[in-house]
Amino acid sequence: MIPAAFEYYRPKDMAGVLSILEEHGDDARVMAGGHSLIPMMKLRMADVPHLIDLQDVGGMSDVSIGSDSIRIGALVTQHDIIDNDALAAAAPILREAALQIADPQVRYMGTVGGNVANGDPGNDMPGLMQCLGATFTVVGADGERDIPARDFYEAAYMTAREDDEVLTAVTIPMPHGGYAYEKQKRKIGDYATAAAAAQIVKGGTTCASASIAMTNLSDTPVFSEAAGAALVGTSVDDAAIKAAIAAMLGDIDPTEDNRGPVAFKKHVAGVILRRAIERAWSRA
């Protein structure tokens, strides 16, 4: 539980961060809240000779709510999400999901930016951001660029962010319709055995649009376009929900581990998705 020796840096601005990244290359990593990276360092699963703490870098701790989008700085914590009443009114699914992450001690330090940037398939925010159609802003030596959340994850702990880039913000289109984040876990503080994010817009008595993403059921979060499409144009009855579950099961690729065998995980995924769809529809 003791990490290997490392050099610690706490620059005051992004220019200082990028300078250290340029100097040390693959040997340097940035840290926001540290609740993903530090445990990996302690278990010697990550070797980080040069650790860059972002806590003193300004401009990444704000939440801005516009008329058509919400911008969340990378250093905004899960507790900040829960405690922000204006944000909860604009996008209540964010508070609903954040309350299911780990425990209060972790939520006081764990950040939105760290949760989405690390590429851990068990983290809750990546799938949620895919469901919401979010965009991640990264900055590097060549400037700033935006990457859709649905294109960001390539494999476990591998993302479209380059090693010399820092994720600085998450931008979410203003959510509409019904929402739900459902999660099954073995105990408080654990990663999900399966989790589902759902957003459904109603048109009259039928589903006009639906967005569904799953967590910890593959080596990346899974945005299931087919599952959402199975609900569109229906009254979200039992047959439509079964079709959405079948489509989702075709998109995920769980592996056996201490949370259960593959068949159990698929069963749980179906149960959790049904709950998410039914609750989102009831709120639409």
Beta-strand proportion: 25-35%
Number of domains: 3
| Strand arrangement across the biggest beta sheet | 4-5-10-6-7
* CATH 2nd-level architecture of the largest domain: 2-Layer Sandwich
- In helices, the fraction of residues equals 25-40%
Number of helices: 12
CATH topology of the largest domain: Uridine Diphospho-n-acetylenolpyruvylglucosamine Reductase, domain 3
Task: Output mean pLDDT.
Answer: 97
CATH class of the largest domain: Alpha Beta
Low-confidence stretches: none
Organism: Roseobacter cerasinus
Keywords: FAD, Flavoprotein, Oxidoreductase
Domain FAD-binding PCMH-type: 1-177
GO molecular function, one term: FAD binding
Characterize the structure shown:
- This protein has 284 residues and is α+β, with helices and mostly antiparallel strands.
- The protein has three domains: 47 residues, 2-Layer Sandwich (Uridine Diphospho-n-acetylenolpyruvylglucosamine Reductase, domain 2), CATH 3.30.43; 111 residues, Uridine Diphospho-n-acetylenolpyruvylglucosamine Reductase, domain 3; 106 residues, CO dehydrogenase flavoprotein, C-terminal domain (Enolase-like, domain 1).
- The protein has twelve helices and 14 strands.
- The strands form four sheets. A five-stranded antiparallel beta sheet has the order 4-5-10-6-7. Strands 11-12-13-14 form a four-stranded antiparallel beta sheet. A three-stranded parallel beta sheet has the order 1-3-2, covered by helices on one side.
- α10 packs antiparallel against α11 and α11 packs across α12.
- It is globular and about 55 Å long.
